[in-house]
Amino acid sequence: MRFIRLVSAASLVLPVLGFVVPREQDSLHISTENRDAFFSFNLRIGDDDHKHPKHPPKHPKDPKDPHPPPHPHPPHNDKPGDGDAGKTILEVISNDEAFSKLWSFVKERETLVKALNSSDADLTLFAPVDSAFWEHGGGHGKHRPPPPPEIITQGLLYHVVDHQHKEEDLKNGQLLDTGLTLGSLGDKPQKIRVFEHKHHVALNLRSHIIKDDIKASNGIIQAIDHILMPPPDLFHVTVRFPKIFGLLALAVKRAGLEEYLKETKTITLFAPTNWAFKKLGVKKLKYLFSHKGKEELKKILSYHVSTELVYGPEILEAKNKQLPTAEGHHLNVTVKDKDPEHGHKHQVIEINDQAHAFITDGIAANGVLHAIDHVLSVPKDEDGEGDDDDEEDVMEAVLEYLMDEEDDEGYDFAW
């Protein structure tokens, strides 16, 4: 299956986040410069006090040696100690060489120093080891100014979680509230999602715990191999995963809803996958992506956006929720028990008895995404007029789509 050319590469790299202090730095209104700075935060966070090493001097090339001299990298000690139950988290990281880069940034931020050094605290710190700050190629490519101090502070707060969480207690799908509070989430904390693999635990897919349960008197430290990046807005979450949500991202752009998914706060997106869109059939898709079908496409997509922020655990606990949508109608979200498979009873989340949410809690700067396996049908209005188009309307739109070169925009529907 060959998919479509979606969006420019530049739109893949614009994460948006926020921080409620100061208020004017709200997540969806940070300047472009700061957004770009934060995206490269994990590439360049060490620029302030650990300059990239210079390239070695050039030597005459030995014609028998096809390989140039290797590019040097800063030495790292990525083997943290076991901690000390008599010392605070702050004291442990300040005395462990594996966390020297992390410590260099924490010590400059009074709020973090007080929190991590408080004897009354009960925290988990997901602590990047030194190599995490260079893992993505620090020292290569174009040099840029270091991120603004408040952006680094936001990133560090995202690594602090209330209460102690031992590795054995972290379960697949678990959501952890962090120290990063966002106005775009209704002044609620941004979350970290746990992914449990056979032999290790991952956080937000990319960061892995490489040394677990490091002791401290006021909490616990989990050493990780990648910096945790606060997620972007909902639109850019879909763009980041084109093999899953490529058609959805394209549909959102065609319907003119891109800015809505970027800027609107506290929303839930029930996101149809590429396979869900494919189930509509080529004719219906071509109609929806035509000029004539644009308004219907917008209405359908708006029906997939709830104006209420709701995470998976809340749905499972409530068993049934009526959620308002941007389109105007409500979604009926229910939890149903399914027959045991392989001896294990399981629950599924259904939307309008039409679709299943088979992946929940894709976190975003302004809400959450739940992946669904069917495109939802918008309810008919009370006068009986719905959105079902007869074959004549569909074929007329298909002809319009095929004949209008400007409408095509280079997209290629090919299965």
From TrEMBL:
SUPFAM superfamilies linked: FAS1 domain
Ranges of compositional bias, category Basic and acidic residues: 59-68, 75-85
Record's keyword terms, sorted: Signal
Keyword tRNA-binding: no
Signal peptide positions on this chain: 1-18
Gene3D superfamilies: FAS1 domain
Domain of life, source organism: Eukaryota
Pfam families: Fasciclin
Location of the FAS1 domain: 86-228, 231-376
Region (Disordered): 48-87
UniProt name for this protein: FAS1 domain-containing protein
Lineage of the species this protein comes from: Eukaryota, Fungi, Fungi incertae sedis, Chytridiomycota, Chytridiomycota incertae sedis
